[in-house]
């Protein structure tokens, strides 16, 4: 079984990575696509105003909006996918999820939603390259 983990953040680059994963899945039988959306934990002061259940609902709602275009791409091509949602440090959570889900490869875009932050602190992709224990295909 070949398992691809595709982090999705709502960016065009992430959708290109989904498209690449779909191509791999159509060319290689018995391939699973795992879509993953990771959100940073809410700042502690937010918990003073919202219950844990409300915060979780907000996160799930946002995740569904972000994952919907990726799911649609898979559905349009007849490729099945499984979507996952995690909260944590983004790069570390991507690397940990690849191991947890027993994925063989991580397929991700070169940049996500914050190009200015990428210039200052380095991209999530670069961090995942250092943290992951599986090969990474970077889609431009």
Task: Give an account of the 3D structure.
The chain has 140 residues and is an alpha/beta fold. The protein has helices at residues 12-27, 52-77, 90-100, 115-121, 124-131; strands at 2-7, 31-39, 81-87, 105-109, 136-139. The model has no long low-confidence stretch (mean pLDDT 86).
Distance between the termini: 26 Å
Return the structural class.
Answer: alpha/beta
As laid out across the biggest beta sheet, the strand order is 3-2-1-4-5
Shape: globular
- Helical percentage: 40-55%
Oligomer: single chain
User: Describe the biggest sheet?
Assistant: 5 strands, parallel
**What is the helix/strand order?**
EHEHEHEHHE
Q: What is the alpha-carbon Rg in Å?
A: 15 Å
**Number of distinct helices:** 5
Strand content: 15-25%
Please summarize what this structure is:
49% of the residues lie in helices and 22% in strands. With 140 residues, the chain is α/β, with parallel strands linked by helices. Helix 2 (52-77) links the parallel strand 2 and strand 3.
Characteristics of this structure?
140 residues, five-stranded parallel β-sheet, 22% strand
Write the layout of secondary structure elements.
Elements: E1 2-7, H1 12-27, E2 31-39, H2 52-77, E3 81-87, H3 90-100, E4 105-109, H4 115-121, H5 124-131, E5 136-139
Parallel strand pairs: 1-2, 1-4, 2-3, 4-5
Helix pairs in contact: 1-2, 3-5
């Amino acid at each position: 079984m070949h398992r691809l983990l595709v982090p999705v953040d709502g960016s065009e680059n992430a959708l290109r990575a989904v498209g690449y994963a779909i191509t791999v899945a159509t060319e290689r039988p018995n391939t699973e696509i795992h879509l993953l959306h990771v959100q940073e934990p809410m700042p502690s002061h937010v918990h003073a105003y919202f219950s844990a259940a409300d915060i979780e609902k907000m996160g799930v709602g946002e995740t569904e909006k972000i994952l919907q275009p990726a799911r649609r791409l898979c559905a349009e091509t007849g490729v099945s996918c499984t979507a996952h949602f995690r909260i944590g440090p983004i790069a570390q959570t991507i690397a940990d999820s690849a191991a947890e889900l027993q994925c063989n490869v991580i397929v991700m875009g070169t940049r996500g939603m914050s190009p200015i932050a990428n210039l200052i602190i380095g991209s999530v992709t670069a961090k995942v390259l250092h943290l992951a224990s599986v090969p990474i295909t970077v889609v431009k």
